[in-house]
Every structure is written in structure tokens, then in C-alpha cells.
Specification:
The chain is an alpha/beta fold. The protein has helices spanning 2-14, 20-34, 39-51, 56-60, 83-97, 113-121, 134-147, 185-188, 212-220, 240-250, and strands at 62-65, 68-71, 103-107, 126-131, 153-157, 175-178, 230-234, 253-260, 266-273. 39% of the residues lie in helices and 18% in strands.
Length: 275
């Protein structure tokens, strides 16, 4: 398969895909795994789909996140490497501050990547995950089973915390993590419109200013968090001051904290519910 791998790498390179060699290797390896006899035909077909813009994770049906292999599907956003920063911050807090069996909510769970990663890396954790769409809920449940954490990860469907009503979780949660849609509708109609070509709008649309879900979750989370328990968000570039203001406006949280990536950009904002 070396020759077909080289052929695909050249096609990807000519199409302007920067990771052409790495992606060619993944495509050919996956094609051989799926159908050794028809691998070359499959690999060429997948290459054409990749050149059309289809995310590689959708083509292969798999993506890695925080050391786990997860199932992917066009019904949910492909897990992003930047979201690992949010997962790492949540796991670090649980390991240093929570009980051996913490209760966690993953709101706007998407594919279930955060819920599965937290349950995997914090073996005593119980996670209640929630999302609005059929595609996300179905895939998150598949991933919980695929990773082997479905005994401790439950996935619910509904509009934010309404999906968790009547479960008796109020005042019992040690940590809430949320990777909400955070791109403004204006940007989705202009310079970020390409995001909607293959992935679901619900994963990106954060309302007029990109903060509609942050605002609601900050308010609604209070009923579920224990005193001194944190709410952690992923945010878009440059949104930290606005999200900080949303926390402070409630007068129900303590100090607002920022977590930066390797480039020094703030990508996670969190605060504890006041005691």
C-alpha cells in the first residue's frame, strides 16, 4: 500500500491539506483494516471525500480525545484538541478537591467526549451528560458504551438542565463542565460559514453574541452545584471578559479564573459557586 499512500498524500497536498502525509497514512491504514481486498478503492474514495472538505474523523468514523478512541458521526461535532484543555482542568480539579466518587454534569455534551474522558480518568466519577439533539444524545450513548464507562455515564436529552429535572440532583454536583456553542450568528453567516458545511449548526450557534448558552448555564447551574463547587466553560478566543462579567453579574460565584493554552490564549473560564 506504499504506492497508494504516496498517491493519496500527493492529492491531499495538492488540495492544500497541510497534514497530507499523516492523513494519507490514516486513510490507507483504515482502508486496509476495513477491507484488505478493496483497500485501494476505498482509500481513493475517502481521499476524494477529504478533498471535498469532509472532516477526516467523519470519514474514518473515529477520533482520539484525551487518550481515548471515540466514535464519530455527522450528527455531532468532531471533538477538538482545544477541548482537551477543558477536560484536563476538570479532571485536575476533581483529583485535588472532590471526593473519591464525585458527581459531575457535562452540559452540551456533544459526542460525549468530555463525559467519557472524565469517567475514564476519574474512575469513581458519576457523570450525567445532556444535549438537545438526537444526533448528539445517540452518539454520546454509543461512546459511553464503546469506551466502557456506560455504567457511570448517563446521557439525557433536553433543553439544558430541563433534561435533568426530577432526578434529585439539585445541590449534589461537585463539578459542571460545559463546552457550549460560542460562535455568534453574524460570524456564522460570514467569515465562519464554512463550519456549517459538514458539522451541525447547533454545535456552533451561540446566539447574537456567541454567549447565549453561557448566560443560561451560569444561572441554571446554581441549583445543581454544591457550595464551593465549580462551573467550567470552554470559550471562544477573546470572550473571557464577557464570560467573567456574566459570572460576576449573578453575585453567586466567587473569583473567576482563566486557563490558557500553550499560546497564552484563554480558552477556559471557571468559577466556584459561593459557599
Amino acid at each position: 500500500m506504499v504506492s497508494i499512500e504516496q498517491e493519496i498524500a500527493e492529492k491531499l497536498r495538492d488540495a492544500g491539506i497541510s497534514a497530507h502525509l499523516a492523513e494519507a497514512r490514516q486513510i490507507t491504514a483504515a482502508a486496509v483494516h476495513d477491507d484488505p481486498a478493496g483497500a485501494e478503492t476505498i482509500a481513493r474514495d475517502w481521499c476524494a471525500k477529504r478533498i471535498s472538505g469532509l472532516p477526516l474523523a467523519y470519514i474514518l468514523g473515529r477520533e482520539r480525545f484525551m487518550g481515548l478512541e471515540l466514535v464519530t458521526d455527522p450528527g455531532a461535532l468532531v471533538p477538538r484538541p482545544e477541548t482537551e484543555l477543558l477536560g484536563q482542568a476538570a479532571i485536575q480539579f476533581l483529583e485535588q478537591n472532590a471526593s473519591a466518587s464525585p458527581n459531575v454534569i457535562d452540559m452540551c455534551c456533544g459526542s460525549g467526549n468530555l463525559a467519557c474522558a472524565i469517567a475514564h480518568h476519574v474512575p469513581g466519577a458519576r457523570v450525567w451528560a445532556s444535549d438537545l439533539t438526537d444526533g448528539c444524545v445517540s452518539l454520546a450513548r454509543r461512546n459511553a458504551t464503546y469506551v466502557g464507562v456506560d455504567q457511570r455515564v448517563q446521557v439525557f436529552q433536553g433543553d439544558l438542565f430541563t433534561s435533568l429535572a426530577n432526578l434529585g440532583l439539585e445541590g449534589t454536583i461537585d463539578l459542571i463542565v460545559c463546552n457550549p456553542p460560542y460562535i455568534s450568528q453574524g460570524k456564522l453567516a460570514s467569515d465562519r460559514a464554512e463550519l456549517l458545511q459538514f458539522e451541525p449548526r447547533e454545535a456552533f450557534d451561540g446566539g447574537p453574541y456567541g454567549l447565549s448558552i453561557h448566560q443560561r448555564v451560569i444561572r441554571e447551574a446554581l441549583a445543581y452545584l454544591k457550595p464551593d463547587a465549580p462551573l467550567l466553560f470552554e470559550i471562544g478566543l477573546g470572550q473571557e471578559r464577557q464570560v467573567k462579567a456574566l459570572f460576576e453579574r449573578t453575585k453567586a460565584y466567587g473569583e473567576v479564573n482563566f486557563v490558557t493554552n500553550a499560546e497564552g490564549q484563554v480558552r477556559v473560564v471557571w468559577a466556584r459557586k459561593s459557599a
